Amino acid sequence: GAGVSQSPSNKVTEKGKDVELRCDPISGHTALYWYRQSLGQGLEFLIYFQGNSAPDKSGLPSDRFSAERTGGSVSTLTIQRTQQEDSAVYLCASSLAGTANTGELFFGEGSRLTVL
Amino acid sequence: AQSVTQPDIHITVSEGASLELRCNYSYGATPYLFWYVQSPGQGLQLLLKYFSGDTLVQGIKGFEAEFKRSQSSFNLRKPSVHWSDAAEYFCAVGAPTGRRALTFGSGTRLQVQP
Questions:
Q1: Which residues of B touch A (CB under 8 A)?
Q2: Of A43, A102, A104, the CB nearest to B98
Q3: How many CB atoms lie within 10 A of CB A81?
Q4: Residue-wise pLDDT tens digits, B44-93
């Protein structure tokens, strides 16, 4: 597709279960970002990839959160032992830029996670 | 550390009226500044950005923003609002060092009355 694709678009899970969220960036975009948007709050930065490496993972809220990117393309965000406070919309973005801050970010429509 | 404050959570304007959305940033030097818009059911889209130079920048959809160093502000403006401008608007700041991703504000939800 032409844009950033995220799946699933909606995920309902029970507390304590693990979830995986997938992001397929725009082809050729070297930078990939994960943000979290909670109700009534702004976008909270989680992790930034440049190629397959993550120069900045300072935003991951706990060790239950991890992310990987393979082949410089698809990324997976994994949340282990989900908690109710993990409920949010998880946004993925990609960029052509070689640095974290100068390029236009292209966002996907997000994966809405609800933890019961 | 970089941070962004959008003091207005929700703003309502009449169609055809002018608009100004406030954004204040905190950063030790001149940062890179951005405005994004999130329309219902859509992903965020870049409206405009400021890196350096002319402090008044023009964006898409008739929006503009002015960087004021003395006030640490980057307010978004539009002279005449259209009903289709109803959306959530996010200001973002980036450090010129390039090692950290953008920091976004909490957003301002714009409602447009007919």
A1: 4, 6, 9, 32, 36, 41-46, 49, 51, 90, 92, 94-107
A2: A102
A3: 11
A4: 999 999 988 889 999 999 999 999 999 999 999 999 999 999 999 999 99
